[in-house]
Specification:
About 70% of the residues lie in helices and about 0% in strands. The two termini are about 25 Å apart. The chain is built from eight helices and no strands. It folds into two domains: about 60 residues, 434 Repressor (Amino-terminal Domain) (Orthogonal Bundle); about 45 residues. The radius of gyration is 19 Å and the shape is elongated. The protein has about 130 residues and is an all-alpha fold.
Length: about 130
């Protein structure tokens, strides 16, 4: 593979995701913010204001709203909120790494394997940054 392509791919893989891709998905379907607000069940005038705040990272939607966005856009929550998911995954991996160093009394094999797998993600994520 040519060196420039390798560099571009490495740069692309190291880029962090946006906290969410709500606006991208809304525009893909040609919905207005007000229409999405209506689909979310927002009552009253200015339905688009809440959608605007969600899209611009001014607030984190509730779990109910996140699931509604998944239903509206037909994309998994972890994809719609890719940046938030990446941060949560890194946080869990870091805590799992810490937990793996602790002595686990009467730890069963499944638990140990899960902790090892989660902790391994912390090592992979820290090498990408």
């Amino acid at each position: 593979m040519n060196r420039l392509l390798v560099h571009v791919l490495a740069h692309f893989n190291s880029m962090k995701s946006l906290p969410n891709y709500l606006q991208t998905q809304r525009k893909r379907l040609s919905f207005s913010q007000e229409e999405v607000g209506f689909l979310l069940g927002i009552a009253g005038m200015n339905k688009g204001n809440k959608v605007c705040r969600d899209e611009n990272f001014a607030r984190t939607p509730s779990l109910q709203d996140a699931l509604a966005y998944e239903a509206i856009y037909g994309r998994p929550v972890r994809e719609l909120f890719a940046g938030l998911y990446q941060q949560a995954e890194q946080d869990v991996a870091a805590r799992a790494k810490f937990l793996s160093f602790r002595k686990l009394q009467k730890s069963d094999a499944r638990k140990q394997q899960t902790i090892i797998q989660l902790a391994a993600k912390a090592s992979v994520n820290s090498s990408k940054q």
